[in-house]
Amino acid sequence: MNKANKKTWIYRFAALAAVLLVAAAMFIIGRGHTVYFDNKMPENASGNIEVPYSIEVFVNGEKVAKLKDGDRGMAETMGQNFKMELLVTKEKGGKTSKIEVGMSLPYNMDGIILNLPAMLAGMDESQYLTEFIPTPSSEDTEDEEVVTDDTEGLMDFGE
Description:
Shape: flat
Oligomer: single chain
Largest sheet: 4 strands, mixed
Number of strands: 8
Number of domains: 2
């Protein structure tokens, strides 16, 4: 192998390595998520969990949701690190407490549901973090008319 051929292979390898580094960085940094916030009793509640009267959710300093008992809110975010501030009011007319939460979002989920009462109660991540799976609407599930004869009406010339 001559010197020019060696240089060519070195440049090719360096270019490939640079492309792979950029791809890995974009995968980590550029991953978008929709995060849903629930203020309701978790389905898998095994203990004494209080659902606060209201929770205000701030992401990047912007108020994205004000949740009463049973409400759901959402926010769009980029990247795997997620930080939010919660203003929690336990009962109507009660004191408001400020809680800062930071977490790493799973790579494999686009829509993430955070059950805030379960999170505030200190439950395990598997109990307050679930994947959002949309259900089809009733319009999508209605039976469609099935045509069994593909040639019906093709040769009909008004006879």
